[in-house]
Amino acid sequence: xxxxxxxxxxxxxxxxxxxxxxxxxxxxxxxxxxxxxxxxxxxxxxxxxxxxxxxxxxxxxxxxxxxxxxxxxxxxxxxxxxxxxxxxxxxxxxxxxxxxxxxxxxxxxxxxxxxxxxxxx
Amino acid sequence: xxxxxxxxxxxxxxxxxxxxxxxxxxxxxxxxxxxxxxxxxxxxxxxxxxxxxxxxxxxxxxxxxxxxxxxxxxxxxxxxxxxxxxxxxxxxxxxxxxxxxxxxxxxxxxxxxxxxxxxxxxxxxxxxxxxxxxxxxxxxxxxxxxxxxxxxxxxxxxxxxxxxxxxxxxxxxxxxxxxxxxxxxxxxxxxxxxxxxxxxxxxxxxxxxxxxxxxxxxxxxxxxxxxxxxxxxxxxxxxxxxxxxxxxxxxxxxxxxxxxxxxxxxxxxxxxxxxxxxxxxxxxxxxxxxxxxxxxxxxxxxxxxxxxxxxxxxxxxxxxxxxxxxxxxxxxxxxxxxxxxxxxxxxxxxxxxxxxxxxxxxxxxxxxxxxxxxxxxxxxxxxxxxxxxxxxxxxxxxxxxxxxxxxxxxxxxxxxxxxxxxxxxxxxxxxxxxxxxxxxxxxxxxxxxxxxxxxxxxxxxxxxxxxxxxxxxxxxxxxxxxxxxxxxxxxxxxxxxxxxx
Lengths: 121, 501
Fold this sequence. Notes:
By secondary structure, chain A is an alpha/beta fold. Chain A contains 5 helices and 5 strands. Chain A has one domain: Response regulator (Rossmann fold, 3-Layer(aba) Sandwich), CATH 3.40.50.2300. Chain B is built from 12 helices and 17 strands. In chain B, helix 10 packs parallel to helix 11 (391-408). The radius of gyration of chain B is 47 Å and the shape is elongated. The mean pLDDT of chain B is 88.
């Protein structure tokens, strides 16, 4: 069965390209444009991996992360953070919240693909 | 009664009338004099010449000394004043009377019933027709307050003269009446002063109409601020902030005005620098996201994920990709340099073997060098101990220097050496190529931002033009030094040092 990846990203061009590449690689890809939508899709669609932006509408990436970590059925869902580092001090915040995988935008997709492959094997 | 007696009677009456009239005139004159005497604001007193007892004392005198005229009459100075003061007054009085001449005492302290005062006194002898002294007339002005004001003014002038703010007074046409030390210093005229100099002559011509407007406006507004380009006596320019203040309490009256001046060049420069930093940072961030999106789009096509591409299309895509990669490198370098300049980059300090860093970069760049038939040769001093530095940042410097050397060489070898300095205090790392070398006039340019030299493009390995500027920042922040030794036609050696602990 195809592995499912949920991409939460509000830049539609970045979203389009990331989805395109991952689906061509054989993954089943779904998108969410804001935090509420992301939590709903995690619940109903049950992804195997989530790529999560931080600066997203309604509930931000950290909120989404804490919410899924607090529920037993999603607490072990692998999450890759991908965000610009303008205001939020991502590396520091990541250490604080125990976030293992993150990329500071903009980044090279090759590295992201590598990370996805590792987490889904 | 005879005619004669009749006549003398009439004469007597006429004489009597004349006398009456004279008496009346005299009374009028005395009353007139009294009115003046009693209402004049200065103290007026009259002493008889023998024992110097008061015979006349006006109202201003009563008010000043605190004694009534009746009380004063027939008393002398010893009855009111401390003995030494009375001695002094009496001696002065005697001097005036014996000399028969007016004496002026410009400052005379006196103890009155109401406390100590300061007087300006004029003493006048009144002599009889044969020159004998009859009376002494005294006229005293109370100058206590005037003196205090004067002293205050002197102190204020002293303060103004020595304050750090540049201050001058000018006439309505902008001619300097007086300028304090800071003001003359500011314009470089400390030696000769600025008195009589037109303020306009200190300011660039393009600002003259602005200044004339300010002279005009200050009359009605009371205070006007202008920013102009000023010049010092030695011709050096600076940004001047001048505040004009109307030197008249009465509104809208032309007269003199004050000018406070400040050299704001540094502030202006800092503001400009801040704007530049913000702009660079903003543009770089805003450029990075779309650039990466374009790169990813091109990659998707090249990777064949959105359909087959012809060889020709692949070639076009390859060129586009290379340009995008270059643009990304450039933006990253700008951002990196800006961060280094802003001092927001934190450097790690770990024990590092320089030889290992050199090995790493040499391994990375060997394929590029080999493609250009260039040999990368290492000469490492085995006595070299580890140094404390930021590994990634020093690797970045090594990469820049070796990459540059490859870029400027056509063939031959590049020698990368690391040694301990003679005094053993520094590690000295040098990258020596056999390229065309650097012309003497180009030397100062190369460590500057975008200090790329002619001919870089020809090598086919275009850089960002920021590599050396970034390297210099990194080395400087490590308390090391970086420089170049080169002669046109004989290759170049880029050398940097890192302090050993």
